[in-house]
Amino acid sequence: xxxxxxxxxxxxPPGCPAHQPAGGPARPAAxxxxxxxxxxxxxxxxLYARLRAQHGPVAPxxxxxxxxxxxxxxxxxxxxxxxNEQLFSKDSRRWRVPAEGRLRADxxxxxxxxxxxxxxxxDGAEHARLRAAVADTLAKVDxxxxxxxxxxxxxxxxxxxxxxGTADLIAQYARRLPLMVFTQLIGLPAEAGPHIVELxxxxxxxxxxxxxxxxxxxxxxxxxxxxxREEPAADLTSWLLAHSAALSDEEAVxxxxxxxxxxxxxxINWTGNTLRLLLTDRRFRATLTGGRLTVADxxxxxLWRDPPTQNFPGRWATSDTVLGGQYISAGDMLVLGLAAANxxxxxxxxxxxxxxxxxxxxxxxxxxxVCPAQHPARLIVETAVETLLHRxxxxxxxxxxxxxxxxxxxxxxxxxxxxxxYSAFTPPRTPAVERPAWTPPSPPSPSDSTPSAPTxxxxxxxxxxxxxxxxxxxxxxxxxxx
Length: 482
Prior knowledge:
Layout: E1 33-34, H1 38-42, H2 44-55, E2 58-64, E3 67-72, H3 75-83, E4 88-89, H4 96-99, H5 110-113, H6 124-139, H7 143-159, E5 166-168, H8 170-174, H9 177-186, H10 193-205, H11 210-230, H12 236-242, H13 249-280, H14 282-290, H15 295-305, E6 312-317, E7 321-323, E8 326-328, E9 333-336, H16 338-342, H17 374-391, E10 396-397, E11 419-421, H18 469-480
Parallel strand pairs: 1-2, 3-9
Antiparallel strand pairs: 2-3, 4-6, 5-11, 6-9, 7-8, 10-11
Helix pairs in contact: 7-9, 7-17, 7-18, 9-13, 10-11, 11-13, 13-14, 13-15, 13-17
């Protein structure tokens, strides 16, 4: 799409952030909605609907007081944003807010918007090089082993719950399980797990501890990269360093940040939001237990309605342009409104129709920067939910659904807690069979087919990888002592 410049248009709308008197920062004349605090946590769907009604598919917002941006709410507009690198770059160094000295040194936005030499912040050939390194590294993960490792982690956590038949599925399950898998995948020691998840939470929530947490997190990963340079192992870090893209230590560290933050946080939130759906939506849970739909259908419902990442920064305009009827100036930041675009009336199905099997949502982004880790993430979440439902089929909420609280993050859609009740007795599990430690996959034979996305299949509880029992128990023990 060729976009006209503001000079070629009839005139800007009143209050447009890109058209203010010379000499002052580009700010709307009228109060601008903030994409932070209680408003984005309590009722984001209502917030996006109001913004759409007031401004159309692209709305002016503030990311923190005095820091303006555009939130892209429209489905076709978001596709245009993600597919047109010439007009909308991933390079945050183009952002004019910090260039004009208007971003505080301690801004909570820095961890999520600072430029890094990663596939998230580059365009063109450099992006292609780094994306290939990440995608090829993730492709080395054996899906069968990943499913077994996830199930073993899930069983270990459930076995560790007390005898009173109560649990918080966020703090005691969704937030712990992915970390138990991801620390193993990248090669971090088990004892680092509890501290890592705290750092990631501060990082993603844009809390007052974001900047310090970001620096400490990267220091831990730099140490890991240097050790794996000297002593490679069967883990993602070693495979990433061995890739033909020849990543530097800095590039490797930053891509491990991407894998840990995007993978871990997304998986946590996707698990928690799916469990919430099953526990609060009578229509959906009745259908699921009745046999028409699977856990995989529940996962898709969540990706449409409450995706784990509801907004994502961002794109930066390379020149003056127009998007969704709004006049965008060079250097403006545009935020991908993933949840809002999914709710665009132009793409919503008629009321009452389910979304099972429909993967046209934008929860993974779109274009060349679409998430490369969606299949491993899906497998982990699907296994986590299936295992929990198999072990505790009588799960029910311990509080009314409307009392559940959401974290005040502009980026994540994540519950604070998900308290449940269940029968205190669970059947004993079959002892795990001894298996070797995690190993890279064998080269496929000519008859092998390309692995498909994971699907819901019956599994035997406790079929995770033995030999790792002490590893899982160690990490679970760290968590239980928090």
